[in-house]
Amino acid sequence: MSIAIQVGQQAPDFTLYNSEKQKITLSDYKGKNVLLLFFPQAFTGTCTKELCSMRDNIALYNQANAQVFGISVDSIFTLARYKEDQQLNFPLLSDFNKNVSTEYGTIYDTFVFDMHGVSKRSAFLIDKAGIIRYAEVLETATDLPDFQSIQKTLDTLI
């Protein structure tokens, strides 16, 4: 059962594998702002638009001492190929078992083509103390997060 993540609450900790087959634990990034971008599936149009936009604007997040992570239920092997093909300059994490997407309340019961358990496009900005400062869960997969609002929130955390 998923419960909506609220601004002001402690971010649920997790450990996932990145596309380089390394374990990444959220709590290891305390002392740094973190932007979690959940996305439905690699190699799809809107996801590619979103993540390539992040790639092209990564300097804004680096300057704000923010670590960006893309998270989907794709396998680490799919994410490795996608990261290489799109030349993404931030880590992609595999939530293949759907635990983190479920805990963050960002998972579709039913997605296109009768797929179950696909991450909703979502953005969570976590401050240096591990507190959620921005949360946006989109119901429509073709919508993009409000990156201007994310950036404004991030500017207040510097």
Give the overall average pLDDT.
91
* C-alpha geometry: globular
Give the ordered list of helices and strands: EEEHHEHEHEEEEH
Main sheet makeup:
7 strands, mixed
- The rounded Rg comes to 14 Å
Helix content: 25-40%
The first-to-last residue Cα distance is 34 Å
Low-confidence blocks of residues: none
Quaternary status: single chain
Write down how many β-strands occur, each being a DSSP E stretch of 2 or more residues.
9
Structural class: alpha+beta
What amount of the residues lies in strands? 15-25%
Fold topology:
Elements: E1 15-18, E2 23-25, E3 33-38, H1 45-56, H2 58-63, E4 66-72, H3 76-86, E5 92-94, H4 99-103, E6 107-108, E7 118-119, E8 122-126, E9 132-137, H5 147-157
Parallel strand pairs: 3-4, 4-5
Antiparallel strand pairs: 1-2, 1-5, 3-8, 6-7, 8-9
Features:
158 residues, alpha+beta, seven-stranded mixed beta sheet, two-stranded antiparallel ribbon, 5 helices, 9 strands, 28% helix, 24% strand, globular
What this model shows, in words?
With 158 residues, the chain is α+β, with helices and mostly antiparallel strands. It is 28% helix and 24% strand. It is built from five helices and nine strands. It has helices at residues 45-56, 58-63, 76-86, 99-103, 147-157; strands at residues 15-18, 23-25, 33-38, 66-72, 92-94, 107-108, 118-119, 122-126, 132-137. A seven-stranded mixed beta sheet has the order 2-1-5-4-3-8-9. The protein has a two-stranded antiparallel sheet with strand order 6-7. Strand 8 (122-126) and strand 9 (132-137) form a beta hairpin. The longest helix has 12 residues, at 45-56. It is globular and about 40 Å long. The N and C termini lie far apart (34 Å).
